[in-house]
Write a structure and sequence with these properties.
Blueprint: H1 10-21, H2 25-34, H3 43-56, H4 74-84, E1 90-93, H5 102-119, E2 124-127, H6 135-145, E3 154-160, H7 164-170, H8 183-186, H9 189-192, H10 196-211, E4 218-223, H11 236-245, E5 250-254, H12 263-266, H13 268-279, E6 284-288, H14 295-309
Parallel strand pairs: 1-2, 3-4, 3-5, 5-6
Amino acid sequence: MDANVLDVPFLLRAFIVYVFILPFRPRKSAEAYKSIWLDNGSPLVVYTEDLTRKLKTKLNNPIKTGMRYQDPSLLGEIDTMIKENPELDSILLCPMFPHNAMSTNEGLIGYTQTYMNKKHPKVQFKTLAPFYKEPDYIDALHQSLLPYLNDYDHILFSYHGLPVRHLKKTDPSKATCYQIDNCCKNGSPEVHAKCYKAQTLKTTELLAEKAKIPSDKYSIAYQSRLGKDEWIRPATDTTLEDLAKQGVKKLLVICPAFVTDCLETLEEIAIEGKETFLEHGGETFTYVPCLNSNDDWVEFLAKEIQKKVS
C-alpha cells in the first residue's frame, strides 16, 4: 500500500492489493521463504544485524537496525535510540540501497522525515546519499567478485527492476528519461543524480573496469517484474534463457542493487534463476553473494558514516 511503490490512486491501489495480490501472493511468498530461511531467521534480518554488530566495533555512535515494513520497525528503533540517548541532537539514516529510486531511497527518506518532523522535531535528520559510484563501494564489490573470476564464460549483472513510469516520475527535467535517444548516456548530471537505471549502468561500468571484464563477457538485466506495465529491460529471466541458448556454459551472476542477501537474490536468482539457466542448456551457474557483512563493505560504510556525523 506504499504509494511510492504502487503509485496509483488510493482506491485503485487498495483494489489491486486486496483483489489481485493478497489472495495469492502470501502463500507463494511463504513457500519461497521456506527455501532460503536460516536457522536463526530471515537472511535479510540476520545479515543486516551482523553488519550492525560489526559497525559497532568501528564507531562510537549508537547504531540500530530498522526495517521499513517489518520488524525490527524503523520508527520503533528511532524512538528507542532517542529514549536511550536523550542527548542526541541528530540522527543519520543509512538507506541500504546503492541506487536512487522513488520506491526505495526517496520513499524511505520522505517517510522517515515526516515522522521525525512530527515526533522528534528538535532532532536533526541526516541521510546517507546513494553510493553507486563511490570508489570504495566499487572496490568492495570487486573484492566479493574476485574469487569467482578464474573460470567463467559470462557475467550477468542483475539489478532489481522498476516500472518505466517510476524513472519518468523521478526525472527532474521531465523530458529526458525514455524521451530522448540513449537517455542514460545523453542525460544531464542533474537527471543522472536521480535516475536509477543510469546509476545501475554506472555501477556496472565501474565494476567491469575495476575487474578487467571484457565488454563482450558481461550483460546487464533487471529482475522482479510485477504486473503488465512497461518495466526496465532486458528482463533477467529471459536473459538467462538467451545466454544459455547462445552457448554460454559457465555463468556468474551478481546482484549489485542488493547489499544484503534476501528473497530476491537467494530464491529468485540462486534457485529459480539457476534452474532457468540449466534447463536451457547452461552447465554451471554461480551466484556471487551480496556484500552482507564483508569487511570491505563494513569499512566503507563506517567511513561514510564518520564523514556525515563528524
